[in-house]
Amino acid sequence: MLNSQLTTVSINASVVPIDMAGGILGQAGYTAFAFDQSGFKLATNGTMEFDSADFVSLTAAQREALVLHEMAHVLGFGTLWTDNGVYLNESGEFTGANATAAWQSEFGQNGTPDVELAGGPGTANGHWNEFDNGAGLTGITDGLGRDMTFELMTGWLNVGPEDPFISELTLASFRDIGFTTANATAVPEPGTGGVLVAGLAVGMGWRRRRSLAEK
Ligand SMILES: [Zn+2]
């Protein structure tokens, strides 16, 4: 089927047993994609799974953040970076120009945004970097004093007093992989390449961050 404009991204969502309480909270990836006129590879379909053992114990705000987090993976965060030329596997550095500008202006950092290399498959190479498997503050803060450890698209959910926040960095990273607005849920417009089916979903899990009480 050929479409000149993509009007929807379809996502299957389910709450299923994954790994008991703790550990992985959810996992997601795209299952079909299309290329736009600039050559960006964009997701058109995807799937999200949430661990039933954890989902009920999350607060409403954490649950909403978890859904947004997994939706971001469907839309390409950490799953379409390499194919869109903004990340080399195991490099630990996201090289997109928009995200790099946000990394410097929003968080006062030098160079390119740091990507997580710890946590194993599903966490490494698919999130912004945290330290100590999410257990400690990064010391990297935005203009409101919010530490990167509380950002939506790090590999571990903070279960402390602060709810996850969405940074300009994350929104900018979507512009680097073909999105044309600052809205992370905006629908991209593919060209006439048609819809291709990926061989398999690229799964990225979100692991629960250790709480202070567990340290
Ligand atoms: Zn994730």
In short:
The chain has helices at about 50-55, 60-75, 95-105, 170-175, and strands spanning about 10-15, 25-35, 40-50, 155, 195, 205-210. The protein is α/β, with parallel strands linked by helices. The termini are far apart.
What does this structure look like?
Helices cover 18% and strands 19% of the residues. β2 and β3 form a beta hairpin. α3 runs antiparallel to α4. The chain is globular, with a radius of gyration of 17 Å. It binds zinc ion (ZN). Zinc ion binds next to α2 and β6.
Largest sheet, if any? 6 strands, mixed
- What ligand species are in this complex? zinc ion
The total beta strand count reads: 6
Helix-strand string: EEEHHHEHEE
Question: Over all CA atoms, what is the radius of gyration?
Answer: 17 Å
The average pLDDT is 84
Q: What percent strand?
A: 15-25%
The backbone outline, from C-alpha atoms, is globular
- Count of separate structural domains: 1
Structural class: alpha/beta
Helix proportion range? 10-25%
Distance between the termini: 53 Å
Instruction: List the total number of helices.
Output: 4
Low-pLDDT segments: 182-200, 211-215
